[in-house]
Amino acid sequence: MTASSIVLDLFAGPGGWSQGLSALGLRDVGIEIDPFACATRSAAGHATIRADVAAYPTGPLRGKVSGLIGSPPCQTFSAAGLRAGNDDMDLCHQGLDDLARGNDTRAALRTTCADPRSLLVVEPLRFALDLRPDWIALEEVPAVAPLFAHIAGILRTLGYSVWTGVLNAADYGVPQTRRRALLLASLTRTAAPPEPTHAKDPGPDTLFGPALVPWVTMADALGWGATDRPTPTVTAGGGKSGGPEPFPSQARKALLDAQQRGSWILHTNRNQLPDGSRQTADPHRAPAPTFTAKAGGQWVLRHSNRRNATVRRTDEPAATLLFARASNDVSWHTDSPSGPESVRITVAEAAALQTFPAGYPFQGTKTRQFEQIGNAVPPLLATAVLRPLAPAALEAAA
Known about the structure:
The protein is an alpha/beta fold. The protein has helices at about 15-20, 35-45, 85, 90-100, 105-110, 125-130, 145-155, 220, 250-260, 345-355, 365-375, 380-385, 390-395; strands at about 5-10, 30, 45-50, 65-70, 135-140, 160-170, 180-185, 200, 215, 265-270, 300, 310-315, 330-335, 340-345. The protein contains 13 helices and 14 strands.
């Protein structure tokens, strides 16, 4: 990668976009403020500038950036957060309009926001206006879609072809029905969403081509239920701070026995069942899976400490994994005849469901590692999203 062909990754996190780029033979330079995410990126070999994106000057980068990636922090807009971003939406729109007019009002607007982090969503436009990269890829929670539409309108006045919309990560091989708003823009190509590679109901082959691949299930992603799989780790975080669980724990041993037979289902912090009906009874009493755990109960993955939850079987993708709040204590759980058992999900399990490669070197406490995983772009989704833009990026890097 030459100095004139930098792919700049704003709010780079632990490296979801970076891993997606690497599958295309490209590398990025990430700007990230969180020390744990920076440590993870360093351990993974990703170039990183530890800095506050909102305070970072664009001047030194002019003429050097060919691609711009941005995933602003989503906590203020996410359903898992307090949604202060909803109250700040008008201020964010104003910030975008002001930047487009050449008037930087970010500092003043930040003081009036319910949560100052909301205004970080305007930062990618500041970099785009100042650097004029060949292509741009932005990602956020679906609630930010109206702001992406606003940015798209501004970019079109500068000659960019722009596409915005919401994609389901499961349609691109991610074992998670994670929905995200995307903005793709290019100065040299027609911006378009990536063609799905997977589908919930692929259907038969047609005259126009073969059917898509079925959604990747949790069992597929984690290798559970396979008779020839390696024995998985039997350690897991215990308390909220991610401390070690006694080894070997009887709960983890029972879960491993269940995993080997595929006898578990996923329980997340929603109240909709796989058939579309609503969960009103105790979420532990979900529809029986194909198999039962060794002790006779049903293993579920609870996405929080709350009672309402989506139940996902082993033959389905996970729901969106979130770890940003204390209530999002994700644990495997069962109510067996001998009493309830609970085992916290491991970092390796969460990372696999987010499509990070095995052994990815997440740094920090287990709590910080889980937060990095939940906030990251799934690398497999990143590769799919960037592939339509990759030819231009590869030409620029040549």
